[in-house]
Amino acid sequence: MSIEKAIIKTIEGKEINVAAQTPIPCFRCGVCCTCYQPPLTSQDIDNIASALGISRPKCISKYTVKVPTKEGYLLKRTKKGCVFLAWDADGKARCTIHASRPQACREWTPSLSKPECLEGLAKLKSRGQIMLLEKLFSSPEEKQALYSSLKGEPPDA
To answer: Which of 6, 33, 44, 54 could form a disulfide with 85 if both were Cys (CB 3.0 to 4.6 A apart)?
Structure first.
């Protein structure tokens, strides 16, 4: 298996090749939530309806779009993205149904191989924000995975 590479720049301007498939923490930039309409399984609809305390039919009529796909429904969008996307005072994206979000959203894994995540990093940079390692990774194992990625080592299986 070949590992995709991405190039990142350090604060000092040094370029480093990174194994792009290594998962990274979500920056809560909201790019993926503004680009996509996740498909909804029947279980997703039930979970959202239950979390909102509404009936399944009301959930379908208020928060979904019927489409000719296997699943049959997509999550509705507004002009600003997902109907459940909200923004915190610090400008970070937040899912208002995070605990009961659709399976497609649960399966999304941020990584440097995804253009959406690279766009999110660019947004942070344009706002003058710096991502510190301690804020990105909560555990030594997560930090080690990034270090391994920076060294070009394949992710642990």
So the answer is: 33
